[in-house]
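Students often ask what a holo structure prediction actually looks like on paper. The answer is less mysterious than it sounds. You provide the chain, you provide the ligand, and the output is a string of discrete structure tokens encoding the 3D arrangement of the protein together with zinc ion.
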Amino acid sequence: MKNHDIYTSSVSSVSLRCVIVANTFYWFLSLIGLYIDFLVVAKRSPFFSRSKIRPRQYISGKDRRELILLCAFNMLLVAPLVSVPLYETLWDRIHGSKRLTDEDEWVWQIEALQKLPIHFLATEVGFYTIHFAMHSWPSLYQHVHKIHHRFQAPTAMTCVYAHPLEFLVGNLLPIYLGPIITNAHPLTSYFWFAAAIIGTCKGHSGYRIFGCADYHDEHHFYYKYIYGGIYVLDFLIGTMKVSS
Ligand SMILES: [Zn+2]
Ligand SMILES: [Zn+2]
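The corresponding structure tokens follow.
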């Protein structure tokens, strides 16, 4: 694909549709999360009150407004207007005319069994490495990653509450990496973006889902350890320190 229009080409609009899928799941889950928070604060849901991981920590009205503003900036402006042209160009440069399109057959043995595991691995390596670097380099933490750590007891919406540069490089790039590396079919890419946003909303939910708290909640509470998304590298490297 050469000299195409990133926003209208049938191939190149794949990234834009990935971002639309991510936005749809993100806002749906985030608003559910805020509604559950409201029920807990109003003492109208004993079930969710029991499931809240940090029972006495809530996001104030002022903090909620700032949370929505930055998350909307990232998801509605940075994702479609910066990440789409940037990573779409990279995707095209690497695969050129071999890029899979909607017209290509979706071969489940290849897409689901071979490519998706690579997506998990690529995202984990990318996310862990960048996240670990932001905690290891004081000025990077102070000026960039500290914003994401504003909420010690997160809610689903806070998963993209981050400096726009961190959102672009530390959050979106690791998600794009898998489909770019494997030349994923568009359907696989849409599924992957949906799965990634569901996973990170779950990690920041602030509630025990199906009885289990997410390890990422511990990372927000202690500001260290547990740097990965699916924790494979944390187990292997030895950064999987969890409170009892
Ligand atoms: Zn962190
Ligand atoms: Zn987080």
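The chain has a mean pLDDT of 93.
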